[in-house]
Design brief:
Number of helices: 4
Largest sheet: none
Structural class: mainly alpha
Number of strands: 0
Shape: elongated
Strand content: under 5%
Order of helices and strands: HHHH
Helix content: over 70%
Length: 140
Amino acid sequence: MKWFMITAEWLLFLYVFICLLSFNLIHLGNLLYVDMPHEEPMTVTTSFAHTSLFIIGIGVVCFLYMKYLWGSSAYKKSKALIWGSLFTCHALASCFYLFMRYGLIWNQHEAMELLLSTLISFILSIQAVMKYYVCKMTET
């Protein structure tokens, strides 16, 4: 059962990593490619509600996962460090795309998705840092 849980949590990490990478690549492509009025930006999905629910859903799952980490203190600390690094990089990238978006003509739904993604990533980064220090304090 232990190996099943370890495999499942790393598959969750891989899934979240791929989702965040594709989200960032779409926005990077929009930033680099869309420089003329007649060019159409790439969209994350066709529906704003679908994308927002997906972002919130992944955020809630990751929040609950990090809240109830299991394993030894060193294993918890390494997981908190890895997840925190992932969400910090994503939060900074989303924040960059949001600030660069100001001068471009995009629809407001893209801006709201970027803002939502940035806020959730910052919250998850803070939670990972707090979990890291809790594990560090229980280790000593």
